Amino acid sequence: MSDGRTAGPSSPSAVGRRRDPFAPLLDNPLAARLREHDRLGAGTHAVPTGGAPEAITVYGDGRKRVNLGSNNYLGLAGDPRVIEAAVDALRQYGSSTAGSRVLNGTTRLHLTLEVELADHYGTEAAVLTSSGVNANLALLSTACGPDDVLLVDAHAHASVHAGAGASRGTVVRFRHNSVESLAQRLERLDPQAGAVVAVDGVYSMTGELAPLAEIAELCDRFGARLVVDEAHGLGVLGAQGRGAVERTGVLDRVDAVTVAFSKSLASVGGAVLTSRAVAEGIRASAVPYVFSAANDPASVGAALAALRLLRSEPERRERLRGNGELLRAELAAAGAEPVPGRGAVIAVPTGDEEVTADAWRRAYDAGVYVNAVAYPAVPRGKGVLRLSVMATHTAEHLRYAAEVVVDAVRAATEAAEPTAQPEVVDVPTPRVGETLPAVA
User: Fold this and answer.
1) Which candidate in 232, 382, 393, 397 is catalytic?
2) What is the value of pTM for the model shown?
3) What strand order describes the sheet that includes 149-153?
4) I need a labelling partner for 139 at 20 to 30 A (CA). Which of 58, 61, 95, 125 fits?
5) Which residue is catalytic, options 70, 130, 167, 204?
């Protein structure tokens, strides 16, 4: 297949001056940056694993590392009960639904998971989607008419922005977590225009919480609908693990909650939790629901088992919260104060992209896997190392990881300073059984 650079009947060079519509892909600056990172040995993306994303994970190079880069918050992705549920579903229903939900793709498992998710959130209905991304696309793309407005937090997940952009309404951004900015934009709206406010409950790159109580008050005052993405709140926050909407006491004031199964529910998929009437509208017209193959049985079986464990084992949530508090305290005590937040996501500021990549590599070589986050996931110059804890981490894992991360950030920062003298850093390369903490 041609990449558009060679002459041919359909190539740009065969028709003279026509611009190449693939140019944004062929000359993508972000792709070029990733290639350069790989060339320099500082690539932080698409690191292969060789096992389940557990507290101690085997990576593609055969080494075991403390895993602080997974969204397996409750530690259920390797739980034998979840795995067995997936296997049972695979044996009973096969490897694929081979069709959309509106045709032949609905199984009894799909219906059961929808009922139990709705019960967990206290909503009238739940609509399963093939991913958390598609949950936001399904809901927001079908909301709003041409004269309506979707007001979206500037740092909301990309799928929230994509879903809003696919709607017929006008998209207006407001400053991240700024109640004042949102209020100003609501005040300027046509009084007759419909309005939807869309935010993340927990922001995925920094762990910050949205000021949901204040936002809900504004929505009540201006008659706006409120949508909250709880991908990173489900199973983590709230007395029953229903996320930031529960923790802040606004669950009964939210018009729709979207969730992803790829975090606490140890699977793949998503759902919209909302009223029966809204759910029926999604099922009738949302492209990601009507025209997408239904979730495969194994992923539905795994998510259903994980949801039941989330509800029946509250001690997992308590361990997770305790682990988050411990890691934050250890980082702060060592001089790497994380971004203020709650929950399982903890962000350690690194600043420049080069420092972020170097710190990630140092931590990785020392036996700790984290996520390196740079532009465009965060603003330029505001890079972070993103750490995410699991209920299955031990205190020993977290203390060791905090020491490694702090040392990595400090060394990378010093190495980037123009006046710094070259320094030979003896980076340890521990293996489990040598200096890495033992797995509990």
Assistant:
1) 232
2) 0.89
3) 125-129, 270-274, 256-260, 225-229, 195-200, 149-153, 170-174
4) 95
5) 204
Residue 408 has pLDDT above 90, yes or no: yes
Give 422's contacts (C-beta < 8 A, 6+ positions apart): none
Residue-wise pLDDT tens digits, 2-26:
555 554 455 555 556 898 999 999 9
Options 263, 382, 393, 397, the catalytic residue: 263
Domains and CATH numbers, the chain: 29-77+314-416 (3.90.1150.10), 80-312 (3.40.640.10)
* Terminal Cα distance for the chain, rounded: 51
DSSP 123: -
Q: Is 95 a catalytic residue?
A: no
Question: Known catalytic residue: 232?
Answer: yes
The CA distance from 367 to 104, in Å, is 47
As a whole number of angstroms, the distance between CA 411 and CA 252 comes to 48
361 contacts: CB under 8 Å, gap ≥ 6: 41, 42, 44
